[in-house]
Amino acid sequence: MADEKKGVIFAVFTYMIWGVLPIYWKQVDHVGSDEILAARVFWAFWLTIAFIFLVGGHKQLLADIKDLWASKKKFFTLMLASLFISTNWFLYIYAVTNDRIVETSLGYYINPLMSMLVGAIVLKEKLVPAVKVSFGLAAIGVAVLTISYGSLPWLALGMAFSFTVYGYIKKTIKLNALGGLAVETLFVLPFAVAYYIYLFSIDRVAFLQIGITTDILLVISGLVTAVPLLLFALGAPLIPLYMIGFLQYIAPSLMLVIGVVLYGEPFDMIDLISFSFIWSALILFTLSKVVEARDIRRAKKAGSV
């Protein structure tokens, strides 16, 4: 029980950090989203590598890289995953720095439902009736927003889809969180460096040009990427999967409150109706997973008797 409590604490801190990150990204909204992404990739790689060497994990990292290189399928599959997570980071940063934090919360609310949909389509996983109803409720919520906006909430759907595909790919390749982050950022590091060189060449770079505060914030972008992943890596193995599914709603809930209360983003009756459908879908979805996990535990206990 002590381990489970520790796992819950780590997971809660993880999702709380992710939930309040819009406040951090707002501090650099005077920097282009493209440069913020390049900085996040660049500094996340070097800070992660430094930490891995500090804790003596470099031998395992080298072994993981050799293993990936030995299997070209794994190598290029993880490269694809790095492209999807980079896309997710860009859409998220773009949304936050362009006053669309509420839309980011929508994206991360519908992400678990989209993950289950991909599982049903790609892995042929069977969907229980409650999950099917959840999809229907979420679809109504997105449809209401689409009619209200006059177009699809493409940022939210793009974030949900890119993270869903990233998560699906990561399930097929077993790497620890820090090692995985190091390798994934290594794949896109050359692009980040090349893009920074390009920005310097056209005199459109913020790093080392605006002020020390901006420079520090851009460097710290690597830290705020790595720290929650480390906490998640420590906490996730200690708690049941259904509990992770429940706790993950902390992040988009905080994003929604921050967007509306702290930054005054619009949230009218249409938004409330749409989100209500999605919240109902998530409640039903989560309850179905809790019941499923309980039934599995009971079956295991019965089998061990």
Q: Taking all residues together, what is the mean pLDDT?
A: 86
Q: What's the total number of strands?
A: 0
Residues in helices, as a percent range: over 70%
Uncertain stretches: none
The biggest sheet amounts to: none
Tell me the span between the first and last alpha carbons.
Answer: 22 Å
Taken together, the total number of domains comes to: 1
Report the total helices: 12
The shape, in one word, is globular
SS content category: mainly alpha
Report the order of strands and helices: HHHHHHHHHHHH
Radius of gyration: 20 Å
Strand content: under 5%
Organism: Planococcus salinus
InterPro entries: EamA_dom, EmrE-like, RarD
Protein name: EamA family transporter RarD
GO cellular component, one term: plasma membrane
